[in-house]
Input
Amino acid sequence: MRFVRVLLMLASLSYFVAAANAQTQTFVRTAQIPADSLDVGGWGNIVAGVDFDNDGKKEIYAVNNDWHDVAGKDLIPRIYKYEQDGTAWKRVWSTALNIPLQNTWPALTWGDLDKDGKKEIIWGPVNNINATTNPNPARICVFESKGDGSDIMGVDIGGGRYKPNAKWTITDQANQNIRPYRWFINDIDKDGKDEIVASLRAGTPRCQIYSVSNIPDNGDSTETWALEFSGTTGTNYDLAIVDSTFYLINDVGGVTPVTRSATGGGSYVVGATQAALVPGGSWKTSSVVDIDGDGVKEIVVAGSFSGAATNQVWVLQRDAAALKATPILDLPLASGRIYGGASGDLDGNGRIDFVFGSRESTPRGLIHRLEYKGGAITDPNSYTLTRIDSLAGAIVTQFDVITIANLDNDPELEIAYTGTPREKTATDPPQPIVILDLQKALPVELASFTIAVIGNSADLNWTTTTETNNYGFEVQRGVDQTDFQKIGFVAGNGTTTTQHSYKFSDRGLTAGTYYYRLKQIDTDGTISLSQAVRADIVAAVREYTLHQNYPNPFNPTTTIAFDLKEDGFVKLRVFNMLGQLVAELVNGQLKAGAHNAILDARNLASGTYLYLLEVNNFRSQKRLQIVK
Output
């Protein structure tokens, strides 16, 4: 069973269920992982969907980012481990490096460099050189799983701190600006040992390959590092590896191939740069995939990082010693510059999907999905573009960290994304990591879901029109949107095509803000989580009030709150500027108290609308704005 929305719903949630029919696919925000208050520079990178400690719980590793240069906050490099425990993502481990200064956009990946079966996080804190306090910091830090089932990564040094099992400065010279930007683990020289292949955005040169002899369990520095290749120029904000060749994509769209020499011996040949092959350059958008399953790998990359005249997505195909570039998508400039990308089969239909982030888009924070439908891979008609999310951050306009992985217990993949707070100040709330899950329309329909605050009680009501193998609903409550506890259970009705209504009351609450969600459980144990629903317990309502909707402007949903000092027949309706009714959110008897209604504007055009509350002899209206 999965939830499917067929009606506008009451409650303070942005999305709840999937779609109105089997042809529609909707992405919902199933979680938002908040950043630590110290991390005012946002998230620099994430690794998602792994299980290094083999406890069956999905993990996300995230490293912070410097943006505001605040001493003791974003200037200090930190790493966090989160686990999904079935109800929420919880921080289970973290540490800070003994490095006083970092810079922006660290590299991050994972692997098993010493092949001992214990997985590692390979992190590249970006050097922020200071001749006195930070002349030659570690630029590669490797944290290895303990291998004992615990959440610990690295070596315990006491006081809740951990050091890397292995680290390297890359150079012995002080005051050198060496900034790996994107790297992958790959046995590029086919010697049976993995290397770190890195593109660099600063320093000389701009591409390097690193290897290490061992990752010591006790972090005793007995490992030996080697620089196996160092060369090329350009500001390389992207990197793609195809077989024994890696391609460096610079900030003006030039692509430089580096290939392992046919003579072996660990030598490499730097090929000629194909200038402006990807106009505008790429900001870590590339994916190496076999789009149509013919056994030949392609590179899919977006070019618009440097503010090119157009935003385009390209397929790069190897043609002898060069690459052939074919555009498959022109994105309107209002969609902002394409920043960050990942690939995976999101709906399990055997066809690849590409997800791209954005910078300075309208609306803010656009996330796009480019779905391959089949057919010629260079034909733009073989792809479908959809907007799957926006407005995730209150201020942030750059969402460039995109990952696709399995982050729950179902077989489908999810999207984790976050970004850099370019327009935020150091006092604004830190940017969260957003989890998006594709909800397919299945033969189970949730007709309505409401929550009403009456005094010190929150009354939840929901109705299903059809159910398949529905064991029941676990009702969960939290004081934020990440940590939920079970407070009750309501049995389901198995398989039925008859409408059923459910209710649950949470009584005796103290004043404050609470979040509720439903954990729907199938008879086979499969679960589906609703979005969090907000309920504000306040002092007794003493007047009628219609509040301004939030967020505003918005896309695609917004919450309208209103207070009733007495029971009454309530109408809450939305009109366009011609006075035409476009949505009716409430039309029925409600009790006195605080209420919330959700407007889903997926089928409404961008523009300004009026919403009108009528109850007893009270009338009030306000304006809202839809921006798509």
Q: What stands out?
A: Residues 341 and 356 are 4 Å apart (CA to CA). DSSP finds no helices and 44 strands in the chain.
